[in-house]
Amino acid sequence: MKGFLSFLVLWLISKKNMTGAEITEELEQRRGHRPSPGTIYPVLKYLTNKELLKVDENKKYSLTKKGEEELDMSLNQFFDTFCDVDEMRRHCHCHRK
Amino acid sequence: MKGFLSFLVLWLISKKNMTGAEITEELEQRRGHRPSPGTIYPVLKYLTNKELLKVDENKKYSLTKKGEEELDMSLNQFFDTFCDVDEMRRHCHCHRK
DNA sequence: AATTATTTATCGGATTTCCGATAGATTTAA
DNA sequence: TTAAATCTATCGGAAATCCGATAAATAATT
Fold first, then answer.
1. ipTM of this complex prediction, to 2 decimal places
2. B4, B83, B88 member nearest A30 (Cβ)
3. Rounded to whole angstroms, how far apart are CA atoms B95 and A75?
């Protein structure tokens, strides 16, 4: 529950506060398949319990201060791992049909 | 076994043919922790069985034609999911201490 | 050649991750 | 105000993921 999906959810919510349904929709757009309700709601609950997300009266999730810090750390980790992301993109684009 | 680790291994080997030990080393550099032998060798076996990798007499792994195609597809998927990777990086860097 | 160190490989199991089914809650439409 | 549709939430279980322990194979050192 603390894998790539959590990371992606934090990132998406950092860009725009969203409800569970909106997050589901956005994930489907990006990944090409829709996460099941049994996937996304437990993730949101987990992140809320960890106080990385908070939710308002309209069920819109937003990052807490702690969530922003966690996101920053995860982004750093991400770019450590994918330090050559520009090269990845070039490789990707030059092979595009 | 077909998750992010496989993707990363394919990418690393596409840049440079490596042995299991060298891949382990490179992953440790990037991620900050060393994958256990019980993790990395099954992944290499899995990718070899799927004919995405081949291995020479010195145990150096390299991509097969099929492996290159798989990598291309995975890279496309990656950049679909992280379509705003530049924004991610900016966000990341501007928060760096 | 014998010993030691390193690398490769397998195995069983612990944990994580994710899903489909189900149900309750909320919203929308009739 | 019902009825229908959508959203939210939980549950149990299936599958994926990863590890540590162990052992076999290979390489390096003495």
1. 0.93
2. B83
3. 10
**Pick from B50, B59, B91, B45: which is nearest to A7 by CA?**
B91
Helix A37-49 and helix A4-15, axial crossing angle in degrees, nearest 10 = 80
| CATH code given to domain A4-94 | 1.10.10.10
β pairing state of B53-55 and A53-55: unpaired
The predicted-structure confidence for A34-44, as pLDDT tens digits, reads as follows: 999 999 999 99
- Per DSSP, helices labelled H in B1-97 are 4-15, 20-31, 37-49, 65-81, 85-94
Which nucleotides of strand D lie under 7 Å from a protein CB? Answer: 6-12, 16-23, 27
* pLDDT, tens digit, 9 for 90 and up, residues A7-65: 999 999 999 999 999 999 999 999 999 999 999 999 999 999 999 999 999 999 999 99
Query: How close does chain A come to B75, measured CA to CA in Å?
Result: 6
